[in-house]
Amino acid sequence: MDLSIRTDTFGQDDQSWIIQCTPSTNKGITLDKSAFTLATHYPNGYLLSGIALGVITATGLYAPYVTAAVDGTGVLAGFLYAAVPIRSTANVDPGGALMRAGVVNETKLLAIVANGATGGGFIDTTGKADVVGNIFFD
Known about the structure:
three-stranded mixed sheet, 4 helices, alpha+beta, 15% helix
């Protein structure tokens, strides 16, 4: 175990997609690092807030939401609340926070996760139905 002091620096997170959030309903989660791809999900070294997430049933880890997935990630659980730095050399699943309730600006959300359409993490009509009553889209 490496207990040395280190400093991480990454770009500013854009949470302009959040209109209203109920922080008490956010949930601490662990992300399955292997489910995210560098070019699609963290080209700048960190996962952006707003990525749509589902939970892998077998492991309990969170991964990009993909409508057709049969591993559990085909059900939208919520959105990554804040950016999460990814260490490309570390084989560690990072922690994060899941936004499970609130109001989001769909236009800004779609702009943030535009690459998600091909690699997961992108919302659609089916995903919106999964969170009806908890997350509202404006």
